[in-house]
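Morning F.,

Quick status update on the modeling queue. The single chain you submitted on Monday has been processed. Sequence for confirmation:
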Amino acid sequence: MKKGCFIKLIIVLTIVVAAVLYIIQNHFDEWIGTPVKEFFSEYFVENIDDELNFIEASPQKDSLRVLLKDYLVNKFDATQEISNKDIEWLVDSVKVIVKDSIITEEDLTKIKNLIKLKGYERSAEN
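C-alpha coordinates below.
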Protein backbone atom coordinates (compact mmCIF):
# COMPACT_ATOMS: atom_id res chain seq x y z
CA MET A 1 0.00 0.00 0.00
CA LYS A 2 1.33 3.42 -0.91
CA LYS A 3 1.92 6.12 1.67
CA GLY A 4 -0.76 8.37 0.16
CA CYS A 5 -3.43 5.63 0.22
CA PHE A 6 -2.61 4.75 3.81
CA ILE A 7 -2.85 8.38 4.95
CA LYS A 8 -6.17 8.85 3.11
CA LEU A 9 -7.50 5.66 4.71
CA ILE A 10 -6.51 6.84 8.20
CA ILE A 11 -8.17 10.24 7.61
CA VAL A 12 -11.41 8.67 6.34
CA LEU A 13 -11.53 6.17 9.22
CA THR A 14 -10.93 8.98 11.73
CA ILE A 15 -13.81 11.00 10.29
CA VAL A 16 -16.14 7.98 10.28
CA VAL A 17 -15.27 7.05 13.87
CA ALA A 18 -15.73 10.67 15.00
CA ALA A 19 -19.12 10.86 13.27
CA VAL A 20 -20.29 7.60 14.86
CA LEU A 21 -19.15 8.70 18.31
CA TYR A 22 -20.87 12.07 17.89
CA ILE A 23 -24.16 10.41 16.90
CA ILE A 24 -23.97 7.96 19.80
CA GLN A 25 -23.18 10.66 22.36
CA ASN A 26 -25.68 13.28 21.21
CA HIS A 27 -28.53 11.52 19.42
CA PHE A 28 -28.64 8.01 20.83
CA ASP A 29 -31.83 8.53 22.86
CA GLU A 30 -33.91 10.08 20.12
CA TRP A 31 -32.81 7.76 17.30
CA ILE A 32 -32.31 4.45 19.09
CA GLY A 33 -33.36 4.62 22.75
CA THR A 34 -36.89 5.99 22.37
CA PRO A 35 -37.95 3.72 19.48
CA VAL A 36 -36.64 0.65 21.33
CA LYS A 37 -38.53 1.66 24.51
CA GLU A 38 -41.72 2.20 22.52
CA PHE A 39 -41.34 -1.15 20.76
CA PHE A 40 -40.89 -3.09 24.00
CA SER A 41 -43.65 -1.23 25.83
CA GLU A 42 -46.00 -1.91 22.91
CA TYR A 43 -44.97 -5.58 22.96
CA PHE A 44 -45.66 -5.88 26.70
CA VAL A 45 -48.98 -4.04 26.38
CA GLU A 46 -50.05 -6.40 23.58
CA ASN A 47 -49.22 -9.38 25.80
CA ILE A 48 -51.21 -7.79 28.61
CA ASP A 49 -54.07 -7.24 26.15
CA ASP A 50 -54.08 -10.96 25.43
CA GLU A 51 -54.44 -11.70 29.14
CA LEU A 52 -57.12 -9.07 29.59
CA ASN A 53 -59.16 -9.93 26.53
CA PHE A 54 -62.09 -10.84 28.79
CA ILE A 55 -62.74 -7.12 29.32
CA GLU A 56 -65.38 -5.79 26.96
CA ALA A 57 -64.30 -3.16 24.45
CA SER A 58 -65.00 0.35 25.71
CA PRO A 59 -63.34 3.75 25.96
CA GLN A 60 -62.22 2.77 29.47
CA LYS A 61 -60.42 -0.28 28.09
CA ASP A 62 -58.57 1.99 25.67
CA SER A 63 -57.71 4.28 28.59
CA LEU A 64 -56.44 1.27 30.52
CA ARG A 65 -54.26 0.29 27.59
CA VAL A 66 -52.75 3.81 27.43
CA LEU A 67 -52.27 3.79 31.20
CA LEU A 68 -50.41 0.46 31.05
CA LYS A 69 -48.20 1.65 28.21
CA ASP A 70 -47.33 4.86 30.08
CA TYR A 71 -46.54 2.85 33.22
CA LEU A 72 -44.22 0.52 31.34
CA VAL A 73 -42.44 3.36 29.51
CA ASN A 74 -41.95 5.29 32.76
CA LYS A 75 -40.80 2.13 34.54
CA PHE A 76 -38.26 1.45 31.80
CA ASP A 77 -37.05 5.07 31.87
CA ALA A 78 -36.56 4.93 35.64
CA THR A 79 -34.88 1.53 35.97
CA GLN A 80 -33.77 0.61 32.42
CA GLU A 81 -35.35 -2.81 32.92
CA ILE A 82 -38.79 -4.37 33.02
CA SER A 83 -39.31 -7.73 34.67
CA ASN A 84 -42.25 -10.10 34.73
CA LYS A 85 -42.88 -9.15 38.36
CA ASP A 86 -43.54 -5.57 37.28
CA ILE A 87 -46.19 -6.73 34.87
CA GLU A 88 -47.68 -9.66 36.80
CA TRP A 89 -48.72 -7.61 39.84
CA LEU A 90 -50.44 -5.13 37.56
CA VAL A 91 -52.27 -7.77 35.54
CA ASP A 92 -53.34 -9.58 38.71
CA SER A 93 -54.58 -6.32 40.21
CA VAL A 94 -56.55 -5.47 37.08
CA LYS A 95 -58.09 -8.95 37.04
CA VAL A 96 -59.20 -8.55 40.65
CA ILE A 97 -60.62 -5.08 40.10
CA VAL A 98 -62.39 -5.99 36.85
CA LYS A 99 -64.06 -9.26 37.82
CA ASP A 100 -67.26 -8.67 35.86
CA SER A 101 -65.50 -8.05 32.49
CA ILE A 102 -66.70 -4.45 32.40
CA ILE A 103 -64.32 -1.69 33.30
CA THR A 104 -65.80 1.50 34.72
CA GLU A 105 -64.34 4.90 35.49
CA GLU A 106 -64.20 3.90 39.15
CA ASP A 107 -62.21 0.78 38.29
CA LEU A 108 -59.87 2.83 36.13
CA THR A 109 -59.33 5.26 39.01
CA LYS A 110 -58.48 2.37 41.34
CA ILE A 111 -55.91 1.08 38.87
CA LYS A 112 -54.37 4.57 38.52
CA ASN A 113 -54.11 4.80 42.30
CA LEU A 114 -52.41 1.39 42.48
CA ILE A 115 -49.84 2.49 39.93
CA LYS A 116 -49.21 5.72 41.84
CA LEU A 117 -48.79 3.79 45.09
CA LYS A 118 -46.40 1.33 43.45
CA GLY A 119 -44.34 4.24 42.07
CA TYR A 120 -44.26 5.83 45.52
CA GLU A 121 -43.04 2.61 47.11
CA ARG A 122 -40.28 2.35 44.54
CA SER A 123 -38.98 5.82 45.20
CA ALA A 124 -39.14 5.25 48.97
CA GLU A 125 -36.84 2.21 48.67
CA ASN A 126 -34.16 4.18 46.87
